[in-house]
Amino acid sequence: MEKINAVITGISACVPDYILTNDEISTMVDTNDEWITTRVGIKERRILKGENKGVSELGSPAVAELLRKTNTRAEEIDALIFATSTPDHIFPSTASIVAEANGIKNAFCFDMEAACSGFIFGLEVCNGLILSGRYKKVILLAGDKMSAITNYSDRNTCPLFGDAVGAVLIEPSSEDVGIIDTILHTDGVGYEPLQMKAGGSKFPATHETVEKKEHTVRQDGKTVFKYAVKNMADVSVEIMQKNNLSKDDVDWFVPHQANMRIIDAAIDRTGLSRDKVMINIEKYGNTSAGTIPLCLWEWEPKLKKGDNIILTAFGAGFTWGAVYLKWAYDGTSK
Ligand code: UT7
Questions:
Q1: Per annotation, catalytic residue among 14, 109, 116, 295
Q2: pLDDT classification of 282: cutoffs 50, 70, 90
Q3: Architecture of domain 5-176
């Protein structure tokens, strides 16, 4: 039987227009541009402003652009998966909302949640759908409206997050490109240090949960930092070794954008040169599941067919992992 690979054949993203700067954050909480820049590496982040706007406001245009760019008709899509921790509603799925907005009627659609690792976990799910032979065109969306779950009176967390969604089209190919390998992990030890406590079935919304701001992200930054540094660096080195990739063989390294110091640690461990690393944390902050597709989207014009790319992420759960893919097309062709 002919070997097939699951291949990213197009990418798009949507970021909101509003730019929230470090200076504006400094008017909300006791912080300053210097602290945020040196400790985290963020200068500004995008925020989806306006009443009653969920993450689908970013996801739907991203899919419209993806269909346009890849010359794909809505009715050709077989599946649409949205990796997000900030769905419009608990149900129905935001995937179904985005599909409806784009006239996608022949696909099965659902949301999945793996926090900041949503894109790489989602790639593995899409990989399985494509390799099964039953699905030919699958859309993976990943991203969050983090501003909806950020406490803007907590200086420990509010400078960190921004809003964005990326989308990729994934199709089968018999060429030697696409998703080559994945290493993914989950360790429930992450339950306490990083969570949004209320709003699920264990702690449904009450006056008290709202007053205590339990519908926003709470994190023990130091603990999360230690796990993120170790696990992202370890898994990146592991996937390179497993696939016999030296630092010279890797064309691009795409780390989750949570903290510049975490990214630096991963660069040091892998030995990769900095000009091969996609970094845009200063412009967008941590958009959770959105960071990796947002980087790929921005760098798309520089990507070449056959480029070896390592993606790596770490997030709540804890969840983490790495994906090795060979890029499938010259970015300038799109
Ligand atoms: O994407 C999902 C995974 N998440 C992550 O990977 C995030 C991992 N964690 C981090 O990136 C970092 O831990 C943070 C950026 C969250 C915090 O940086 P840190 O260097 O670990 O700071 P810290 O929490 O240890 O705080 C150091 C000091 C404290 O003051 P004292 O107690 O030493 O006097 C904080 O109160 O910095 C203070 N601080 C701030 N100062 C000014 C904390 N936040 C701020 C702030 N502005 N915004």
A1: 116
A2: very high
A3: 3-Layer(aba) Sandwich (3.40)
